[in-house]
Specification:
The complex is a heterodimer of chains A (382) and B (662). Chain A has 19 helices and no strands. Chain A is mostly helical and 382 residues long. Chain A folds into four domains: 40 residues, no CATH class; 42 residues; 136 residues, Tetratricopeptide repeat domain (Serine Threonine Protein Phosphatase 5, Tetratricopeptide repeat, Alpha Horseshoe); 92 residues, Serine Threonine Protein Phosphatase 5, Tetratricopeptide repeat. Chain B is an alpha+beta fold. Chain B is 64% helix and 11% strand. In chain B, the strands form two sheets. Chain B has a five-stranded antiparallel sheet, with no helix packed on it. A four-stranded antiparallel sheet of chain B has the order 1-9-8-7. In chain B, α2 packs parallel to α6, α5 packs across α7 and α7 crosses α9. The longest helix of chain B has 33 residues. Classes of the chains: A mainly alpha (382), B alpha+beta (662). Chains A and B meet through α1, α2, α3, α4 and α5 of A and α1, α2, α6, α8 and α17 of B. Chain A: InterPro entries: C-type_cytochrome_biogenesis, Cyt_c_biogenesis_CcmI, TPR-like_helical_dom_sf, TPR_rpt. Chain A: It comes from Metarhizobium album. Chain A: One of its GO terms (biological process) is cytochrome complex assembly.
Chain lengths: 382, 662
């Protein structure tokens, strides 16, 4: 609101500045040519000065004086002929209207197209002082702190995984290395460094990365992440048998419902082994994108669950707004099924069927999916 | 909120400029004083609005407000303060806002200092200025809005182009724009005169300070740009005949011609129509330069972001203003009464020769700059018009001009005496030749042409001195009288002498560097030495260092002469972290007017590094001469005769007529 008040004041102020000469009205009008005559009189004085100093000869001066004199006479005679016209009142009124209309019309129209009046200024210092939950600013704040105190290992340790997740891999590597240098290594940091190096090498487990995982293994012999990447290193160097053995060991040691089992099974198969049957092996979610899965893998178990639920909830909300989306309904039903929330899945199916009747092709598709997943359908209840 | 207020101020500036484009002209046409008065106060308001918008953008840059897209794109929180400040115009949007600011600044100056101008002329001039302001404000708001916002705001900026992180950015663009845009005033005066259909000596008188000021700033801006390129780019050159350089050089050449033809017009009422045309052409070349540099037609450090819509918009502005102005000229010029007559050998004649050569050389540069662009856009064929073309054509044209310069001030108006001028100058010429020979001997040879080049430069310097010498009558009069006469000379005489002397000094520098320069490209390992210009450089090795926003590898060199250490110098290669962009920071050592220039190349596999070492004798004369020219411009600008007393408001026309009759 204050903004619009200031805008109004500014516009009014400029309008007043433009209107003042119009409101003051016509005054006695000086001849246009008085200024010109002044120039020529000045030139005459100049000639006298030059002559007095002997810079020009009297002859030259006389000649020039005659010339300038002629110009002066021409100007002066022109002045008398000029008729000073008064200003027409109508013209002034019209001009006032032009000013009063143009300023707000052009100003507000164009500004409403190009401006963002609701956006406040955001000086960096103010944002740093009060970061709220702006992740980027928190990172910047930590960075500034580290620029002042580069020996603060905790700071590097905090930033490293954030850098890794936002794909600032060079910074992530530096942060992990600094944290390890200052705080000493632990499995988490070495693993993080190794993963960063792999990401930077487009998925190749480089020698540096392998060295990092070996360090991690020394500190924590039971870390599955470490073992997985070491096995991957074997696979990538063509040591198929060793890789297969390593992956199989990993699968055996893992808890039955570990989320990485399908991935490990994939690698076992790739290296010529048979996947170990595990009870908890889940089907791929299907709906989240590969990036989401990758991001989810890097989260703690609780966070991951939360993230997936968040995505499903947002899909749900979208479908409430725009229900004509069979793909969306299929995904939503499948997601609730996978999340073991049969009530919500049944509700989703009901809402989907309200949009796409049960006897339509889409309706049948949804029913088939629900039956396949063991979700209660209207038909079952009946 | 303040960012949005700045944005709104700019929009309001557009509205004000539109009002100013229409009402004052209407008033001038109908003889309506209040409407004409509106131009004066309106121009001040316009300046206030744009200055406020500019201040807001500056504040956003200083406060690293990354919610402003322009700040996010061109700044970084870790950039040193001065570069946050100069970064305001170190990008397309900000530099266009600076362009506009200087334009309305000149309008405000005309409004303030133009009290002695006829009402109609002042109203028309300010209205034409407002046309230009309208066009450029619209351009800024529609295609290059510096107040575009980002939501949510990014946490960190993308950094300023490292090449621009230099004090040069704080000085070069504002000076250059003061020159470029200053010529808009001359343009507006020319258009106003054409609209009124009346020009006379007084017109030239009123335009002269604006031409002088613009020319002075442009001289300084070009020289500063040249020196910046010289020390920053690491190639050791000071002028490349690069299209971007030519874009600023063409208005300078045309502006120099305008400066001289306006003198003829003011003093003798001759060359009136020609002067009007030159005023139009000079600003047109400024606009053309803006188009070439900003449209993305050329790729260089000046073309920040290429966006076709911008190029087309500027092209439209260009066509509208240049085409409109020339059409008006063609329509009205025949109706103007032409001026006085003069003999070919006279001061006027000399100035016509000056104009002739300067305009032909402007055309040469224009062809050399535009021809490759036209050819490429028409046939797709890429050719490069480089220094050989310009040196052959432009260089050749400059020889008669340089030789003729000292004669001009010595010739009388209307009918001159060439023989008399020759007699007065032969001492200067002989002296110049002698000193050139001595120089040649001291420098141990070089091409014979160097002697002639040096003599030409010295002839300009000595010729400027002899002009003052003869005017004061030194040698003919008693010392006391001569001194009084010298002190009593108008300041513009000193300005002329200084400007011509400065030109001579620049010529000296150019000839000395091009003929006596030495270049060594050597692969050096720590402990090795190289020779240049009589100095021995010992390479001590490389060291790493970290700056606020860059990391660098610096090489250290110890410079000795005759076994004694005289100086040491660092030369480095930097990597700016935010943009991952490398730059070269040359090591430059100054000995008197000469410089030793050390630039690092690529490291070799065996631990050595390629080092380029230049010995640049008397190179500082090039820019020193420009400074002297600039100083001459200011001296001339301060001449009391340029400040005609404002007509007393109470003076009656009749009285003026009586005075004229006396």
């Amino acid at each position: 609101m204050l903004f619009w008040i200031i805008v109004a004041i500014l516009t009014a102020a400029v309008a007043i500045v433009l209107l003042l000469p119009l409101l003051r009205g016509a005054k006695e009008r000086l001849s246009d040519r008085a200024g010109e005559a002044a120039v020529y009189r000045d030139q005459l004085k100049e000639l006298e000065r030059d002559q007095a100093q002997g810079l020009i000869t009297p002859d030259e001066a006389e000649y020039a004086r005659a010339e300038v004199g002629r110009r002066l006479i021409a100007v002066s005679s022109g002045m008398e002929k000029q008729v000073a016209r008064g200003s027409g009142l109508r013209r002034i009124r019209l001009a006032e209207i032009v000013v009063v209309v143009t300023l707000p019309a052009v100003g507000l129209c164009l500004y409403s197209i190009t401006g963002s009046p609701e956006l406040p200024s955001q000086p960096l210092e103010a944002r740093l002082a009060n970061p709220g939950n702006d992740m980027g600013i928190l990172v910047t704040k930590a960075e500034r702190h580290l620029a002042q105190n580069p020996e603060d290992g905790q700071g590097w340790d905090l930033l490293a995984p954030i850098y890794y997740r936002s794909l600032r891999l060079g910074d992530a590597e530096l942060a992990y290395r600094n944290a390890i240098r200052l705080l000493g290594g632990n499995a988490e940091r070495w693993n993080g460094l190794g993963e960063t190096l792999i990401a930077a090498a487009d998925g190749i487990v480089t020698d540096d990365a392998r060295a990092a995982f070996e360090e991690a293994l020394k500190l924590d012999g039971s870390n599955f992440r470490t073992k997985f990447y070491l096995a991957l290193a074997l696979e990538q160097t063509g040591k198929q048998a060793e890789a297969k053995a390593a992956f199989e060991t990993l699968a055996k040691e893992s808890p039955a419902d570990a989320p990485w089992i399908p991935l490990v099974n994939e690698h076992i198969a790739k290296n010529g082994g048979a996947p170990l049957a595990t009870a908890g092996a889940e089907k791929p979610l299907g709906n989240p994108t590969a990036e989401d899965v990758a991001a989810a893998e890097n989260l703690e178990a609780g966070d991951r669950q939360q993230m997936i639920e968040g995505m499903v909830a947002s899909l749900d909300a979208k479908l409430r707004e725009d229900p004509k989306n069979i793909e969306g309904w299929m995904r939503l039903i499948r997601s609730y099924g996978v999340l073991k929330q049969p009530d919500k899945a049944a509700d989703a199916l009901k809402r989907g069927l309200a949009v796409f009747p049960a006897d339509s092709a889409e309706g049948k598709q949804m029913l088939a999916l629900a039956q396949g997943m063991g979700i209660a359908t209207e038909g079952n209840e009946q | 909120m303040s960012v949005e207020l700045g944005h709104y101020a700019l929009v309001l500036a557009l509205a004000t400029a539109i009002v100013l484009s229409i009402l004052p002209i209407w008033g001038a046409w109908r003889g309506d004083r209040p409407l004409m008065e509106l131009a004066t106060s309106g121009s001040l308001a316009l300046f206030g609005l744009v200055a406020f918008a500019f201040a807001v953008l500056t504040q956003a840059h200083l406060a690293s407000d990354f919610s402003v897209k322009n700040v996010w794109e061109n700044s970084h929180s870790l950039v040193p303060f001065i570069f946050k400040f100069s970064g305001v115009w170190g990008n397309h949007e900000g530099s266009m806002l600076l362009w506009l600011l200087i334009l309305v600044f000149f309008s405000a100056l005309v409004a303030i200092f133009g009290r002695n101008l006829p009402d109609t002329l002042r109203a028309n001039v300010l209205a034409v200025q407002a046309w230009v302001a309208t066009a450029f404000t619209l351009f800024i708001l529609l295609t290059s809005n510096p107040f575009a916002r980002l939501n949510p705001a990014p946490p960190e900026g993308q950094d300023l182009n490292p090449v621009l992180q230099d004090v040069g950015l704080a000085i070069h663009p504002p000076l250059l724009y003061l020159g470029y845009v200053g010529f808009s005033v001359c343009f507006s005066f020319a258009i106003a005169a054409l609209m009124e259909g009346r020009i006379d000596a007084a017109w030239a008188r009123w335009v002269r300070p604006w031409t002088l000021a613009a020319w002075t700033f442009l001289t300084a801006g070009i020289a500063m740009g040249s020196y910046w390129a010289y020390y920053e780019l690491g190639w050791g050159g000071w002028w490349f005949w690069d299209p971007v350089e030519n874009a600023s050089f063409m208005p300078w050449l045309a502006g120099t011609a305008l400066l001289h033809s306006a003198i003829v017009m003011e003093k003798r009422e001759a060359l009136k129509i020609w002067t009007i045309l030159l005023a139009i052409l000079t600003f047109s070349l400024s606009l053309l330069g803006t188009f070439l540099v900003r449209s993305g037609v050329l790729t260089s450090v000046h073309a920040f972001a290429t966006d076709p819509s911008r190029g087309i918009f500027i092209l439209c502005i260009l066509v509208l203003f240049i085409g409109g102005a020339l059409a008006l000229f063609a329509f009205r010029a025949p109706q103007l009464n032409s001026g006085g007559l003069f003999a070919p050998i006279s001061r006027e004649g000399a100035l016509v020769l000056n104009n002739l050569i300067l305009t032909v050389s402007t055309a040469t540069v224009l062809i050399g700059t535009l021809y490759p662009l036209l050819l490429e856009s028409l046939t797709g064929e890429k050719i490069s018009v480089g220094p050989p073309f310009f040196n052959m054509t432009f260089g050749l044209l400059m020889i008669p001009l340089l030789l003729a310069v000292p004669f001009g001030p010595l010739l009388a108006w209307k009918r001159g005496d060439l023989l008399g001028a020759l007699q007065r100058l032969y001492v200067a010429a002989g002296l110049a030749f002698f000193v050139a020979l001595v120089f040649y001997y001291v420098e141990n040879g070089g091409p014979v042409m160097a002697v002639l080049g040096l003599a030409a430069g010295l002839f300009l310097v000595f010729g400027a001195v002899s002009d003052l010498w003869f005017r004061a009558g030194i040698g003919k009069q008693a010392m006391g009288v001569a001194w009084r006469r010298l002190v009593g000379l108008p300041r513009s005489a000193f300005g002329t002498a200084l400007a011509h002397m400065g030109l001579g000094i620049t010529v000296l520098g150019i000839v000395a560097v091009t003929t006596f320069e030495t270049e060594h490209v050597v692969e050096m390992k720590p402990g090795m030495t190289a020779e240049a210009g009589g100095y021995t450089l010992a390479f001590d090795g490389m060291r790493s260092a970290v700056g606020p926003n860059y990391t660098e590898d610096r090489g250290h060199f110890t410079v000795s002469r005759g076994g004694a250490t005289v100086a040491d110098v660092w030369s480095s290669k930097r990597l700016y972290t935010a943009r991952r962009m490398p730059t070269t920071e040359a090591g430059i050592l100054t000995f008197g007017l000469s410089q030793l220039y050390v630039s690092l190349g690529d490291p070799m596999a065996d631990g050595g590094i390629v080092v380029r070492i230049w010995w640049k004798p008397y190179i500082l004369c090039i820019w020193g001469g420009a400074l002297v020219m600039m100083f001459g411009g200011f001296v001339s600008l301060s001449d009391r005769r340029l400040r005609v007393g404002a007509p007393s408001r109470r003076a009656k026309p009749v009285k003026a007529a009586l005075e004229a009759g006396e």
